[in-house]
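HUMAN: Mind sharing a backbone?

ASSISTANT:
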Amino acid sequence: MDFNVTYNYTSDMLLRGLIAVSIFLILINYIGKNSFELSKKHFSKLADFIFGCSAAVLLILLVLISKLSPIVIFSINIRYVIGIIAVYWVYKGVKKIMKH
């Protein structure tokens, strides 16, 4: 069995992750501020325009990211990950046995 498989973490994966995290943070912040109010707020036309423009820019960014050349930021061999996980679990097992 060959475990010499490398996993490459590329720049487009990093940008997609950053975009997803920022969207989730903005969404959680928006829900936290507006879900507990009883008043019916109406957003201004400027706020709606800014929201629409930001959504369009986000879609354009996602399309451009898919066209981005894959620049490898981080590369790791899978067997090293398996080795680290195995050593961790052996350590946890020995520690649990030594406690009892």
